[in-house]
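Reviewer comment 2.1 asked that we show a complete input and output for one of the modelled complexes. We chose the adenosine monophosphate case, as it is the one discussed in the main text.
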Amino acid sequence: MAVMEASWPWLKAYPPGIDWHARFAEEPLYRLLEESARRFGDRPCLDFLGKGYSYAEVGALARRAAKGFAALGVTSGTRVGLMLPNTPYYVIAYYAVLMAGGTVVNLNPLYAPPEIRHLVEDSGAEIVLTLDLPAHYALLAPLLGATGLRRIVLCPMAGILPRVKGLAYRLLKRGDIARPPADGTHLAFADLLANDGYFAPLPVEPARDLAVLQYTGGTTGVPKGAMLTHQNLVANARQCLAWFPTVKPGEERVLAVLPFFHVFAMTVAMNWSIACGAEIVLLPRFEIASLLAAIRRKRPTTMPGVPTLFTAIYANPAAKKIDLTSIRSCISGGAPLPVEVKRKFEAMTGCTVVEGYGLSESSPVACCNPLNGVNKTGSVGVPVPATIIEIASLDDPSRLLPQGERGEVAIRGPQVMAGYWRKPEATQSVLKDGRLRTGDVGYLDADGYLFLVDRIKDIIIAGGYKIYPRNVEEAIYQHPKVAECIVLSVEDPYRGQTVKAYVAPAAGQTLDAAELQTFLKDKLSPIEMPKLFEFRSSLPKTLIGKPSKKALIEEEEAKRAAAAPTGG
Ligand code: AMP
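Response of the prediction step:
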């Protein structure tokens, strides 16, 4: 170990007050809630559009729901789907499933019907919880009996709103409430709670038992379920907690606008908050006016975000009129954080935004820039405690490269998944001896900071040269009139592939290819210079607000298919 440690450059410059050598005890994930319910019982745990729940209440509701799940047959290893936006239902049901011994399957209610069907079939989810909105319910109803799904639990929207809003909802949205048949396959969330709450959570083996199946990889074909154990997720919540040495247990307020069914928010906004007794301010969807209203009303101390969220706030004129100074720190993840976005958001709020990195397969956080140390521009930071980052050769993944060289980023640590659900071959290709291959290309600098270069599959090869789209995007972002951009390769009859830039100018600005090319001349090599530009008022986003390359690739493919001569 000591020999290997000598080659880990981050140990020299590790953030003060944080112990990289910290180790994380094996615990059931539900213990985070149980401990906080004991320690912070009367402190606020959840706020949903003005309706509050204390830690004692959430702890008690989770026990009752766990007993309800057990009565439905949930036991060790039963998969239960949560197809819910950020609502008290999500948090209560998540911990309740775990207490009953089950495994949570995160489902995004905005997925298309075939995707939901695939995830329910692949995971073998027996029970799924959804809001009582007809559009959401319609995704599940056809799966009853046709897949392993045997029960749907409907969670009434009106039931969690503050009293007056709830009454108004019942009255105005009467036609917008799903009304399932009374055939014993459906129940209401209240039915799960209709018991005395005396329930002993099932013992789990934290390093083996699965807490969550987190589906990922939709952009590269069939989604795979990353198997995250109790230990993976407890460790990652505690690793992130260690990253904030100034956290005041029981006193933080976390704005949770990113959806919990995505791994970043599940760990950083939910499990992290529950572990330190923070109040979670739940927003069921991203909508700038209600986000700003929530900031004004609750004065959050932190807000995990993706770069587009920070941009949406500072670019909104209404944001300038409200006091944002309660926010002290934010982790940004999921996509590269352009320097300008970080600078502008920090200038507006006075907070520190640190960029982190990870993936579903690593629970997700693997690296982060320190809050109390050196932040390096363009880097995603150093490995969080107990985490090792290695760089493997792109040609031979078993060969590790010395510091400074570019290759595939690999992660080892207690947060690395157990494998892909029922996909031993896919597991073998990314996980060997506890080392996770990420598919991201990067390098470590002399202080052990990780710099991402690109994703392996996004590298453009034009005329035999490797082009990293991220480099090109960063150069374009330096133009003051640019709000968003995505660079990708399109087919080129001469070069094989060529570089195309999609650009959304900032509100009220106009920009054309000639102006941008002149600006980029001294920033990009002629090979990197985009040959094609497309200007739009905004660019497509993934459901959590990352710029969506996938959507643009699909558009390009559709265009190509339409242009192709049809065969006789
Ligand atoms: P997911 O599993 O959906 O969370 O996606 C994980 C992927 O997002 C990683 O493999 C990276 O390619 C990308 N990613 C995450 N964080 C960052 C970051 N800070 N900068 C650039 N890419 C990132």
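Residues 6 and 361 are 27 Å apart (CA to CA). We note this here for comparison with the apo prediction described in Section 3.2.
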